[in-house]
Amino acid sequence: MPTSLSRLKLWSIGGGKGGIGKSLVTLGLGIALARLGKKVILIDGDLGGANLHTLMGVRYPHVTLEHFLTKKVTRLEDTVIETAVEGIGLICGADDLMGAANPTFAQKIRLLHQIEELPAQYVLFDQGAGTSFNTLDFFNFSGGKIALFTSQTTSLQNAYGFIKSALYRKLSRDFAKDIEILELLYRGGEAENVNHCATIQDLLDHFKDINPEKHARLTSALRDFHLFLVVNMVKNNADLKAPEIIRSVCRDFLNIQPDIMGQVLFDSGVEAAISRMVPFPLHQKKSKAMVGLNQIALQLVRQSRLPRGGWSGVQEAVEEEALPLDAIITHPSTS
Length: 335
Known about the structure:
The protein is globular, with a radius of gyration of 20 Å. A hairpin with a 5-residue loop joins strand 3 and strand 4. Helix 1 packs across helix 12 and helix 5 packs across helix 6. 43% of the residues lie in helices and 13% in strands. The protein has a single domain (8-156, 229-316), classed as P-loop containing nucleotide triphosphate hydrolases (Rossmann fold, 3-Layer(aba) Sandwich). It is of the alpha/beta class and 335 residues long.
């Protein structure tokens, strides 16, 4: 298995809910990194309804993830196709493969191993919608994890549900042979349970005195689950409260403290670009959406240089390069 440090080149963009712009943010972030001189490969992880190639202006990809999963090609690298954007390669999703949305364990492990061998400085994994085990495993495997959402209440609920599911999936794998922890973890919501653990903090408190060794292992596992938050389609300053809401709920109920990585402004030009099948930021030199994506790309580069155990607050890492909020949102949208 590759080391944690090597996995920092792999970043997954997830969020659970469809329609929040995961593919567009993945694409825009890839373009921002390419403009910084980085070699980037995008992977469309939506194995049931891939569309990233459409956003890239690729109408009929000649090779997709299907060819790798079914061993029509031996190396994942052989599925990378060139795009119109210099410095960006693309691995198209397998939306035409029966059962592709549920790859076998062997297929999944083979894919994860070969992602590490891809010839790129950064690999951006556009996660599919939902919280299937495969989606959660791909997300958790990534050294960099970005949870994307909008300010809508349903999106916030889905984002928290996705983060909770990903964390519980990680803990269930980390403690797969510890029946006591698993029972407390998954029966914690049952009020009639004698050892009622409604939150992760309750779980930690339960073991603090009776089993310090398990308490230490749980604490370490939680510390290892480092997450970044990005809010998309920001129209006004009120929308910027969304990441703080998610962060607060994660702190109170999951005992984790995600970093707020940034925001992407609502950009009416995005839909027009989708219709034209062109990478949306390229035809707009002053695209509002790219302002935030450029800043997120800078933060991503900074964080990727840190050892896995040395994650720091994102805001501190790029303090001298971040633009003032007033320079980004000058006229709140009323649309």
